[in-house]
């Protein structure tokens, strides 16, 4: 069963076509092709999304791609196409350079040009442009504080938008003419302003909203200087259109279809951003209630409060798998995988476990790794780690929970 779950997970990742999503999105626009287009793609799916734009009939005169280290990119860089690498999940000096280059590209447009923007998961860290009242070191301090305190991605991005010249519609402000954005959402239930912290989209949140997040999670920064983001009523907002072309729910739908092809009857559960502990309780209950041959699938972005200063290597998928394993019936298997191929600070996408795996691991050893948030070594040493490498996909995490059929003991 575990091997079949890993095969299904890999099949799902291969089925997601970001290039086609952009190409088809452009084809659906009713406008005539613009005379001149300048294009920028930011995120883990940036190379594929830019490939879709370059395959369209539009005349893309200059293009800039910003993606993480290790992300596959087959685009041929040259005078008209630049490919930059930057850091994720935490920004670095290259992220600041990328942010400056993106803003320069937007500022070089004229009122007759179109700025085409493609945003996917990871964009917030890959491109940074702190406003003049905050330096990069301070922004990193805020980022670390929010991560340690367990702020949700929506709360995190609310603060990011009000610290930036790029995010919160800053890119639209910088452009001289119309802006069209195609977005691949990595936020469950997220709106355009949540995806990559909304570099093109009007922002319904305010400075007060961002300050409230800081007051809750990082009160030491509550008095930090914040700036207004692009409001829907601003003149520049009228020049922007955005389209969400891929959403996290697609991951669960494809996961269910893959399991059905492997012989299970699969049900898609509602997406979740619940804490890992709550999801573990939920899956333990579901595992006991599944009939033979049944499966449940969910896309999730679990919260896990971790102190980077004391934690080991690992991520929320591997952590969840280690927690749930001893609570699984003997004929049930569970997979938790990060769609981008990078589960936290581990080198794996996640882990696949069952009761036999739990029985083979010393309970005190497992408990120690869980307590130290150091599950990467645990899974690597016991064969439960799923290693895919950077996938060029970022649509949250995929969870698969299956029960064997009665006929063979495995589906």
TrEMBL record:
Residues 299-397 form the MOFRL domain. Gene3D superfamilies: Glycerate kinase, MOFRL-like N-terminal domain, MOFRL domain. Residues 6-219 form the MOFRL-associated domain. GO terms for molecular function: kinase activity. Keywords: Kinase, Transferase. SUPFAM superfamilies: GckA/TtuD-like. InterPro entries: GK-like_C_sf, GK_N_sf, MOFRL, MOFRL_assoc_dom, MOFRL_protein. Pfam families: DUF4147, MOFRL. PANTHER family: GLYCERATE KINASE. This is Glycerate kinase.
């Amino acid at each position: 069963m575990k091997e079949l779950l890993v095969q299904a997970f890999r099949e799902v990742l291969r089925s997601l076509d970001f290039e086609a999503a952009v190409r088809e999105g452009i084809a659906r626009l009713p406008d005539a092709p613009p005379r001149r287009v300048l294009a920028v793609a930011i995120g883990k799916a940036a190379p594929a999304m830019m490939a879709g734009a370059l395959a369209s009939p539009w005349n893309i005169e200059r293009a800039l791609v910003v993606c993480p280290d290790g992300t596959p990119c087959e685009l041929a860089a040259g005078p008209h196409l630049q490919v930059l690498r930057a850091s994720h999940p935490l920004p670095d000096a290259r992220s600041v350079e990328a942010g400056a280059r993106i803003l320069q590209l937007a500022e070089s447009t004229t009122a007759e040009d179109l700025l085409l923007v493609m945003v996917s998961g990871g964009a917030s860290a890959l491109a940074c442009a702190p406003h003049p009242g905050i330096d990069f070191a301070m922004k990193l301090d805020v980022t670390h504080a929010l991560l340690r305190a367990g702020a949700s991605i929506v709360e995190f991005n609310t603060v990011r938008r009000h610290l930036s010249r790029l995010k919160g519609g800053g890119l639209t402000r910088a452009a001289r003419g119309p802006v069209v954005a195609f977005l691949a959402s990595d936020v469950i239930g997220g709106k355009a302003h949540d995806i990559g912290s909304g570099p093109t989209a009007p922002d319904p949140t305010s400075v007060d909203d961002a300050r409230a997040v800081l007051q809750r999670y990082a009160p030491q920064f509550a008095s930090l200087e914040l700036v207004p983001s692009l409001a829907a009523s601003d003149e520049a907002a009228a020049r922007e259109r955005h389209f969400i072309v891929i959403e996290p729910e697609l991951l669960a739908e494809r996961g269910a279809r893959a399991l059905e092809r492997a012989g299970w009857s699969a049900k898609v559960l509602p997406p979740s951003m619940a804490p890992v502990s709550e999801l573990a309780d939920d899956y333990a209950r579901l595992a006991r209630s599944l009939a033979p041959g049944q499966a449940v699938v969910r896309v999730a972005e679990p919260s896990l409060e971790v102190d980077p200063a004391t934690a080991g290597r690992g991520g929320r998928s591997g952590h969840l798998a280690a927690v749930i394993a001893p609570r699984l019936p003997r004929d049930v298997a569970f997979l938790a995988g990060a769609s981008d191929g990078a589960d936290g600070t581990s080198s794996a996408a996640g882990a696949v476990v069952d009761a036999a795996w739990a029985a083979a691991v010393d309970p005190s050893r497992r408990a120690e790794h869980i307590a130290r948030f150091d599950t990467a070594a645990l899974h690597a040493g016991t064969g439960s780690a799923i290693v895919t490498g950077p996938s060029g996909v970022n649509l949250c995490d995929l969870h698969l929970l299956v029960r064997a059929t009665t006929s063979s003991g495995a589906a």
